[in-house]
Amino acid sequence: MLASKSLLRQVPPLQRRAAFHATATARVKVGDTVPSVDLVESSPGNKVNLATELKGKGIILGVPAAFSPSCSNSHVPGYLNHPKLQQAGKVFVVSVNDPFVMKAWGTSLDPQGSTNVRFLGDPSAKFTEALDLAFDGAAIFGGNRSKRYALLIEGGKVQQAFVEPDNTGVNGELPNLI
What pTM was computed for the model? Predict the structure, then answer.
């Protein structure tokens, strides 16, 4: 008994749940409703709730970190430059970052704001955790982060969910889901 308590203290909190359960995690899946959790855009006072915003068609892109090389150089630009972007409905990029970082990142990737893609911060990771897509990124990012994902939404529900199998890989085919 004492050995198991000692072992439990050594396992990071996000991994404890998975380490001692025989069932798979309840990761976001087709048919799930978009979580009603406030995110922030441009400043802490500008709350955005995707459950309210996505009553029609849209995409939620989750990334581990703003300004990371793979997210900035290929993943997000793959969506921003996609010829069918305007047909995708509302598009949101969400990261476990503060609103100021997300605003700066959005401006650096889309200086004129011509794509209408909105960059939202999830500073407390509550939205990410509601989707069950958080991972312990303390070793690289300093705290919990989001797995890389794309959710195709229609009528407030997930129609398709694509989640990277690891926490660092980039699937260059995801933008073609538009």
Answer: 0.80
